[in-house]
Amino acid sequence: MKLPSINFKKLKKRYIVLGIIVLFILFSIIKNAVTPDDSKEFFTVEQGEVSETIIFAGDIDMKDRVNLGFGTSGRVSQVFVSEGETVKKGQVIARLSTNQLSAQLLEAEANLKRVQAESAASGVGFEYSYQNFTTTKEQQDTFVQNAYRKLLSDSLEVYTEDDTDAEPPTISGTYTDTIEGDYIVTTYSSGSSSGYSFKYTGLESGFDAIRTNTAIPLGEKGLYIKFTEGQDYSNTVWTVSIPNKRSSNYVVNKNAYDQAVAERARVLAQAEDSYLQSQALESSGNQISKSQADVIAARARVDAVRAQMADSVITAPFDGVVGLVDIAQGEIVTANTPYVTLVGSDQFELALDVPEIDVAKLQIGDAVSITLDAYQNDAEWQGVIEAIDVIDTLVDGVPVYKTTVVITNPDERIRVGMSAKASILAETKEGVLRAPRYFFERTEDGFVSRIMVSEKKDKEQSVVLGLAGSDGFVEIISGLQAGDILVREKTVE
Questions:
Q1: C-alpha angle with apex 396: 392 to 398, nearest 5 degrees?
Q2: Is the confidence at residue 33, as pLDDT, over 50?
């Protein structure tokens, strides 16, 4: 029997086709097994940190800056300072021409002397008794004020009820107010050069960085506080009592003050009796009453001219540095227009307008990171919130709260008027469950997400979310656990 012939060429071709089909099927299976669905995005719920940082824009200013001008119009006769010059409180900065006022003052003073002479010639001592009473009262008031100031300012010390080995700060200066009470000074760790800052409440309130072995103003009532280098000043509370009743000098100063008050009452009673007798005598006739009126009118004219002369001078209200001088000799100026800027310290501050929605997230003493638009992100400075207004201010119809940030590490690159951005860590939570915010969808009942059940299946899960972070992560309070895989459809770009 003759076997049929085999066409090996056709057979080989069939096997090749069959092999290609098998390989294609295997490749598809493997590809589907190892390649994820490109249309979906996944994230595994993890533990980590969620923090909210809020950013505000503001402008750089100086802590103590004032614009000065003349109280009257006129021609500038002298400018005594230049920009960058240091001046002392009361120093004359600029003056207007006062030739005409000087002549008026001489005339007014001459008229006052004339009417005083006429009053004396009439045999009446009213003018003398009035002047004596006024001078005596000023002297006695000064004695009492000095005694009281010594009572309040002498031997001031810092006390604490805390169990601390830190050396107490020291107090210097003269208390300029008349209100008795306490300064409560609280220290805390910060990013300042010493590692500490402090806040004070009570008689005044405010904040500052601790600069060891340097006297730092404690408010604006004349007192200074100095901390010792090398001490642990973290979380301590100190009290400065005005006056210091624990001091051994308190009783001596209190007796001296009481004696000054009693002496003033005795001396003024005598001077007042003499004045009232002279007044009764002067009022006994028309001619005497006229002399009294003439003297008062003449004195008022002298005082008025002197007041005008005082308005023609700009004087420094405090020690500082002249930042701007916008006048020149011979220039005509107008009243109540700023021509000179005086800076009282080298402390820079950042003024922020904080919206109502964010103000509750801030506290006095919060640390602030600052960047300047002029340097973009190439440099960063540190600051601390010193004050937050309790009353809102309308800016473009929107209520904002003026917030002041003191820069704790200023340098020569900072200039007044520079635009700045302040980053403030409002809240942070560590070790919480977190995931990107875009994996959650808001519904009428709250938030939901989709979690992977198996390779091919996922389900919807209700969740409770907490703090939303500035980096896109959000805190997961309940509904998920670490290791759950979240699924979402990719956004089509």
A1: 40
A2: no
